[in-house]
Amino acid sequence: MKAIYLEAIDKPFTLIEKEKPVAGPGEAIVQVKAAALNHRDVWIQYGRYFTKEYPAILGSDCAGIVTEVGEGVDAAWVGKEVIVDPSSDWGDNPRAQAVNFKVLGMPEDGAFAEYVKVRAANLYEKPDHLTFEEAAALPLGGVTAYRAMFTKCGIQPGDRVLVTGAGGGVALFAIQFAAAIGAEVWVTSGSDEKIGLAIDLGAKGGVNYKNENWGKELKAIAKGFDVIVDGAAGEGFVQLVKLAKPGGRIGMYGGTTGKIGHLNPAEIFWKQLAIHGSTMGTAQDFAEMVRLVDEHGIRPVVDIVFPLDQTEEAMRYMEAGKQFGKIVIKVG
What we know:
7-stranded mixed beta sheet, Quinone Oxidoreductase, Chain A, domain 1
């Protein structure tokens, strides 16, 4: 089979021929039709991820067709169109993942290949309204957004919600999920064009965080927020605390702009704020996320599709940060 190979840190992704995997007990083989990129893949390429096991076949997100199952797996899965939950070994504590928690694509071979071996328990039937490319865009970003908003922050219909960094995969899922249940969604972005596209997805409005007084500007037009979903942290997090309403909940799933600035603790305890760290999600989170997408006919936003042999070019496109939605690799 064809696969995308990362030999070592700071090496380019290259196309190789590799032996097709074989399903063991409790496992399934999925013929990958489409896979999606995550920033995790770029971090691994540069050696900035906590797991460092090279060479590697990366790729956490995929959709395809089950071609083979191992012992103990219902043969009815063969021929089904599926998406794959990329996480495994969460552990027994639903509040936090165990130390041996893993994500598909390192240390186990991932989805940037014509076939991938996964645990059969991680298979979910692809919602009928999704193309393979749309379905491949869903898993990691979708479950991350769902857990941060629903499991951790307890979002409810009618809540006023702020999603930062509109344009990234998780942020767009957060916008779509919140709008689908009847929340009022606002966004921030460094691009006025992306704010406009977020409004097309269901957001009520937004502000450009490059504006000098963006926090005060947003406060003036939206008053305050019940739920804030953030993947940036950094100095801007101080503004998020100010923007949270009394009793507000902030869900953090990343820290792309670095360490948080100087917070006034009184703004946290006096307003009774809850700040939730969140990473990926449990099997239950994933199942509920897929159900939400299916019930509301939500279609993941796909920015661009590359062929498998242009995965290196796709990584550089992601690194440039100009996308609005997910970057997808067409495999089959």
